[in-house]
């Protein structure tokens, strides 16, 4: 992209974006203006695509609402997006999850989730085992019994 355009738009690009990727379940907090009032509305679903870069970057969130698939495209750097929460992480095998459009029911949200148990198990197995190497503590002798009268 043109360096002059990058310089102009760099002030508008958000720096504190929550890191998320395609396949993650997210909750997007958007500002909604109704008359003179402003409130925050939450749109939750699965990120099926991320496109663009810089000020033009967008992401598409899909959810099932009353049996119908609904997709919404959000600009990442929009001032109307208050925050993005990652509900669940996943291991998507593709850059775009457009194949979810053909699925219905539970299959429409079935994406391989990250296996946290495997990560924890791998971390434990690589950690040094200090308790097994330490000598066993000497047994504590029992206190002598006293006769009660």
SSE sequence, one letter per element: HEEEEEHH
Helix/strand-derived class? Answer: alpha+beta
Give the name of the CATH architecture of the domain at 16-100: Roll
What's the count of strands? 5
The overall pLDDT, averaged over residues, is: 83
Percentage of residues in strands: 25-35%
Low-confidence stretches: none
Shape: elongated
Summarize the structure in words.
- It is a single chain.
- The N and C termini lie far apart (about 95 Å).
- It is built from 3 helices and 5 strands; from the N terminus they run αβββββαα.
- The chain has a domain at about 15-100: SH3 type barrels, CATH 2.30.30.790.
- The protein has about 150 residues and is α+β, with helices and mostly antiparallel strands.
- It has a 5-stranded antiparallel sheet, with no helix packed on it.
- It has helices spanning about 5-10, 115-125, 130-135; strands spanning about 25-35, 35-50, 60-65, 70-75, 80-90.
- The model has no long low-confidence stretch (mean pLDDT about 85).
- The chain is elongated, with a radius of gyration of 26 Å.
Please write out the topology.
Layout: H1 3-9, E1 25-34, E2 37-51, E3 58-65, E4 68-75, E5 81-88, H2 116-126, H3 130-133
Antiparallel strand pairs: 1-2, 1-5, 2-3, 3-4
């Amino acid at each position: 992209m043109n360096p002059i355009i990058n310089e102009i738009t760099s002030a508008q690009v958000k720096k504190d974006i929550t890191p998320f990727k395609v396949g993650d379940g997210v909750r997007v907090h958007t500002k909604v203006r109704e008359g003179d009032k402003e409130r925050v509305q939450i749109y939750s679903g699965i990120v099926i695509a991320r496109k663009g870069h810089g000020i033009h970057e967008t992401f598409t969130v899909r959810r099932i609402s009353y049996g119908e698939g609904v997709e919404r495209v959000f600009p990442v750097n929009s001032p109307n997006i208050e925050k993005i929460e990652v509900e669940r992480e996943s291991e998507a095998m593709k850059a775009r999850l457009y194949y979810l459009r053909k699925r219905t029911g539970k299959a429409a949200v079935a994406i391989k989730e990250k296996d946290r148990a495997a990560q924890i198990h791998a971390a434990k197995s690589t950690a040094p085992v200090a308790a097994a190497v330490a000598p066993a503590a000497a047994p504590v002798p029992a206190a002598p019994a006293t006769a009660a009268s």
